[in-house]
Amino acid sequence: EAQVTQNPRYLITVTGKKLTVTCSQNMNHEYMSWYRQDPGLGLRQIYYSMNVEVTDKGDVPEGYKVSRKEKRNFPLILESPSPNQTSLYFCASTTLQEGIGYTFGSGTRLTVV
Amino acid sequence: TQLLEQSPQFLSIQEGENLTVYCNSSSVFSSLQWYRQEPGEGPVLLVTVVTGGEVKKLKRLTFQFGDARKDSSLHITAAQPGDTGLYLCAGDDYKLSFGAGTTVTVRA
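^ inputs. structure came back:
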């Protein structure tokens, strides 16, 4: 089944403790991205990657890092999480062909206390 | 600044009624996409429209893309409780920019 897999689904952590949210896709998609969704603010892009070793900032990149060492994986790293990073996070992927939509993961609900 | 404005923000209707959700953009995107999202789950793609004036049908859902490629609408005929959810439009320009969404509730 074609899918984007995120782990974990739920995570509660403490301020300053480094964490990684993993994202993997099995569709050989070139493009992958991370979004956060907050009430009243909607979905906002954090980082995106056009291909292996090519990443760029989205609209809200502060406090996050990403890497794209393999085509299928695009982890999101929070080096020193803070409470304002409490949010629902989604990974998404697509091909670079025009008119093809995105496949989203099921989400990671992160709480930083 | 929200590039895509959706209206209405909330919509509650009785089963069997029709509904329309609107999406207006301040920019032209290479494509415009509609998603449906359940609480706590990821958005699921419904349709992608690329050509100005395009109309696409997906069972009881009809999607239109404006001639200028800056506005779109989603029309649901004879809505069912299973249509309940958050409907999102998104413009794609090597980055998805989302509207705030329309929460649709269909009462049985």
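DSSP finds no helices and eleven strands in chain A. Residues 8 and 108 of chain A are 6 Å apart (CA to CA).
thumbs up if we can close this ticket
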